Structure prediction request, 378 residues.
Amino acid sequence: MKLFDVYPLFDIEIVRGNGCYTYDSAGTEYLDLYGGHAVISVGHSHPHYVQAIKEQAAKLVFYSNSVVNSLQQRLADKLGRISGYDDYQLFLINSGAEANENALKLASFHTARRRIISFAKSFHGRTSLAVEVTDNPRIVSPVNNNGNVTFLPLGDIYAVRAELGKGDVSAVIIEGIQGVGGIQVPSNEFLQQLREECDKHGTVLILDEIQSGYGRSGRFFAHQWAGIRPDIITVAKGIANGFPMGAVLISPKFTPTYGMLGTTFGGNHLACAAAIAVLEIFEREGLVENARRVGDHLLGELAKIPQIKEVRGRGLMIGIEMDRPVKELRTRLLKEQHVFTGVSGTNVIRLLPPLVLTMEQADEFLHRFKLCLENYGL
Ligand SMILES: Cc1ncc(COP(=O)(O)O)c(C=O)c1O
Prediction:
């Protein structure tokens, strides 16, 4: 059987990882400023994480959500305390799209409305509702296009006000920092105004923190820079450092009923053990603070490089915008300098490293990046 060929691949097979480094099948070492697309939070193969997974796998990998799984409550307690959302409720699933799917569904159950406001350049996943609120017509199939969603310019509070004023909007969904959209940071003021408008009109505010959350921005959630509290927060990626998992943090104003939401695999024993180990490492190693400190350093140093058009981001979620397409630059970084990075659109290099990135590794990246610009004749 052939693989369904939907990914344009680099001809590199990564077979091993350690901290912020990965190694290919030929033994070449790569500095990982991509984290497998913002997924690796505590570093590749962190010993505490590996041990926790091994121990849990030897005991029990899975049993269904029809019996007590105390690991789920342990995870909820820890996440509530560390994130500052102790009073919220946790629903566990397996991916980011699934988290948004459930968040939007919950909002609609709660408000008995069906319209949703999303923003230009947003990305929220590829399943039915998640893709419908994603601003990319190329990945929305006719069956996903149900006319429930209005896209507005990011930052345009007048447009939001006009739509919410119609009284039929169930939810506003917004990324803490837009990732796929090119590392666009919504202003604190805009997030605060969104909070006010949603309150005024009985609309549910959903913060998609799937890429920007879990410490990446230098706060546990990127929206915490604006001092707001959304009604629903979605997370995935860094939550279990590569073990598939997603979660929805739900305000106390939502009342659950049996059967309202559900999943087979969500919150399984192995995923919970991985996610608990991740939070233990966050605390022991101060990873949110590290993301802020090393991120500030990177942002400051990148801003001094004259060939760069603009640097955007917070913490270890950084966009480097060039005045030309970055495809070749990214390939050269990988092939010549052995550095993994991501891209957004055509002109932006995206940095999403593991949150354990050290100052020395950040400087090593800056050195290789500058070399690459020189070699490329920029
Ligand atoms: C902001 C955001 N939301 C949702 C998703 C979808 O997550 P998943 O691929 O786990 O379904 C992503 C994935 O890149 C994302 O960046």
